[in-house]
Amino acid sequence: MKTIKVSVVTPDGPVYESDVEMVSTKAQSGELGILPGHIPMVAPLQIGSVRLKNGGKTEYVAVSGGLLEVRPDQVSILAQSAEVSDSIDVERALRAKERAEERLREQQRSHVDFKRAEMALQRAINRISVSEKR
Ligand code: ATP
C-alpha cells in the first residue's frame, strides 16, 4: 500500500508525524480524502477532526482550525492547537464546555465575547467527540 507523510504542527511544536494510507478531514469547502499522489493544494481547516488510516488502524486528531497543505508525498497541517485522541483530557474539555455555555447564557455580552465563547464551545465539543473515537 502506498503511503503519504503526515505532520501536524502547532505553535507548541509537532503533535503527530507518520506515514499513512489516507488522510480525511473537513476543509471549509467540504470533506477531503487525501491519498498519496494528491495534487498540491492549500485549504483552511475548521475546528474538527483529522482521520488517519494506516494498516487497518485509524487514528484521530482534534484540530482547532488552521491550514492544510497537500503535496503529492506530504500533508502538513498547521493548527493553532491539536491533540491526538488518546492525549485529550476529557474532564478538561467538559469543564471548558461548561464555562463556554455559561458565558453564552450570560446576557449583554459584547459580540466579540460571544464569538470567543462560541469558538471555545466548539473546541470543547470537538475534543469530547474526538476522544470518543480513540
Ligand atoms: P481550556 O479552556 O481548557 O484551556 P481551550 O480551548 O481554551 O481550552 P486552547 O487555547 O485551544 O484551549 O489550547 C491550549 C493548549 O491546551 C493547547 O496546547 C491544547 O492542545 C491544549 N488543550 C486544550 N484543551 C485540552 C484537552 N481537553 N486535552 C488536552 N489538551 C488540551
UniProtKB/TrEMBL annotation:
Naturally occurring in which organism (per UniProt): Robertmurraya beringensis
CDD domains per the UniProt record, alphabetical: F1-ATPase_delta
The keyword Ribonucleoprotein is annotated on this UniProt entry: no
Main localization, broad class: membrane
Membrane protein topology class: Peripheral membrane protein
UniProt cross-references to SUPFAM superfamilies, sorted A to Z: Epsilon subunit of F1F0-ATP synthase C-terminal domain, Epsilon subunit of F1F0-ATP synthase N-terminal domain
Lineage: Bacteria, Bacillati, Bacillota, Bacilli, Bacillales
UniProt protein name: ATP synthase epsilon chain
UniProt function note: Produces ATP from ADP in the presence of a proton gradient across the membrane.
Domain of life, per lineage: Bacteria
Keywords: ATP synthesis, Cell membrane, CF(1), Coiled coil, Hydrogen ion transport, Ion transport, Membrane, Transport
Assembly and oligomerization: F-type ATPases have 2 components, CF(1) - the catalytic core - and CF(0) - the membrane proton channel. CF(1) has five subunits: alpha(3), beta(3), gamma(1), delta(1), epsilon(1). CF(0) has three main subunits: a, b and c.
Compartment(s): Cell membrane
Domain ATP synthase F1 complex delta/epsilon subunit N-terminal: from-to ranges: 4-82
Family per record: Belongs to the ATPase epsilon chain family.
